[in-house]
Write a structure and sequence with these properties.
binds magnesium ion, 2 domains, single chain, globular, alpha/beta, 5-stranded parallel beta sheet, Rossmann fold, binds thiamine diphosphate
């Protein structure tokens, strides 16, 4: 499945020139999008380093996808919901997930709101309607659609943005989710982030359909293909889709065509299955470079300002990392708490047996940073 560029909604040309209508965003809002994209990239870089140093277990980066994630999520109101895949943690941070909680979740330490019970890089934040992602591909689609229908039944005006990857379009949740949302008119915007790969399966081998956007037609909803490395096009497409929902015109699918620049996760070696030239071609379409060129030409960003911003972001992120690195691990007793109102006998026995083992062998050693996919 290859989408030719002329079929894509595009506002910024590959060099950052304005080729379409600018969305209704003032200079401050345009600049904010850039800062959020840069924060995603800087956080990723640090998390990857921590993983390589054996400090955190697993990272799924969003390098190359910053424009897709930030542009589309920026249109949501605080009362809207964001149902994510592996890589939308940065959108949650933009919407109010504190960076300290994000990093605590990476360490699974005592500040982790999931109490260390989730695999790291699976964020959640109640305050911004960001439910935890499940590693099981595509399940968030059915969850999000159901919750959207519940919102509608309650008379709320919340829009539910449901994110998933190209690989998830082959999951049952995609088909049942789109069908249910269309038939029951659930307030959903489906956001497919086509990043070129589902681990080692290329987008071209994922479907025999002419495009991912075309799949929407089968469910009777609109499907729009978007240049996912153009943050403004992603913003506009999401804005249009959200407005459709708010106007009572029903759900739709937007497909953001972009590219996963790094491995599927910190456990993956993408050089085993894809060519360097393909990666290099996408590097030239980098969403941050492109948007920076546009903002500089518009006078919203000064030449060289990106470097200063990057230094500020790293200082902010490093401060948070040092704080969370020093935080205590989750107390062992939390393993058996919260399941029942009071811990029953069989769990007490298991816990005591576990404590005896922990006493005999001491604390687990930090690993080499390897983690299964
Ligand atoms: C139901 C299910 N099948 C297979 C897997 C193994 N798996 C993990 S990630 C992944 C690919 C996901 O690709 P995509 O949806 O394109 O998202 P991306 O990782 O590219 O963001 C697969 C097959 C899984 N986690 N769940
Ligand atoms: Mg993918």
């Amino acid at each position: 499945m290859v989408q030719s560029p002329e079929e894509l909604l595009q506002i910024l040309g590959p060099e950052g020139g304005l080729e379409g209508a600018l969305p209704e965003l003032d200079d401050e809002a345009l600049r904010d999008l850039f800062v959020h994209m840069m924060r995603v990239r800087c956080v990723d870089q640090r998390m990857l380093k921590l993983q390589r140093a054996g400090r955190v277990g697993f990272v799924g980066t969003a390098r190359g996808l910053e424009g897709a994630m930030i542009g589309s999520a920026a249109v949501l109101r605080p009362t809207d919901w964001l149902w994510s895949g592996l890589r939308e943690g940065g959108a949650a941070v933009m919407r109010g997930l504190p960076l300290a909680e994000y990093v605590a979740q990476m360490y699974c330490n005592s500040n982790d709101t999931a109490k260390g019970r989730q695999m790291c890089n699976h964020f959640q934040h109640q305050g911004t309607n960001y439910p935890s992602w499940s590693s099981v591909i595509g399940t968030q689609i059915a969850h999000g659609v159901g919750a959207a229908y519940a919102s509608k039944q309650r008379g709320e005006d919340a829009v539910h943005a449901v994110y998933f990857g190209d690989g998830a379009t082959s999951a049952n949740g995609f088909h049942s989710g789109l069908n249910f949302a269309a038939v029951w008119d659930a307030p959903v915007v489906f956001v497919c982030v086509d990043n070129g790969w589902a681990i080692s399966v290329p987008s071209s081998a994922q479907t025999a359909a002419a495009s991912y956007a075309a799949k929407a037609r089968a469910y009777g909803i609109p499907g729009v293909a978007v240049d996912g490395n153009d943050v403004l096009a992603c913003y506009q497409a999401a804005q249009d889709a959200v407005e459709r929902v708010r106007a009572g015109e029903g759900p739709s699918l937007i497909v953001l065509h972009t590219y996963r620049m790094l491995g599927h996760s910190s456990s993956d070696d993408p050089t085993k299955y894809r060519d360097d030239e393909e990666v290099a071609a996408w590097e030239r379409l980098d969403p941050i470079d492109r948007y920076e060129a546009f903002l500089v030409s518009k006078g919203v960003l000064k030449e060289g300002e990106r470097g200063e911003l990057e230094a500020e972001l790293y200082a902010e992120i490093d401060g948070v990392i040092h704080e969370q690195e020093a935080a205590d691990p989750m107390p062992l007793a939390t393993l058996v708490e919260d399941v029942y109102e009071s811990v029953p006998r069989h769990l007490k026995e298991q816990y005591n047996a576990f404590l005896a083992v922990a006493k005999r062998y001491g604390e687990a050693e930090r690993g080499e940073g390897e983690f299964p996919l």
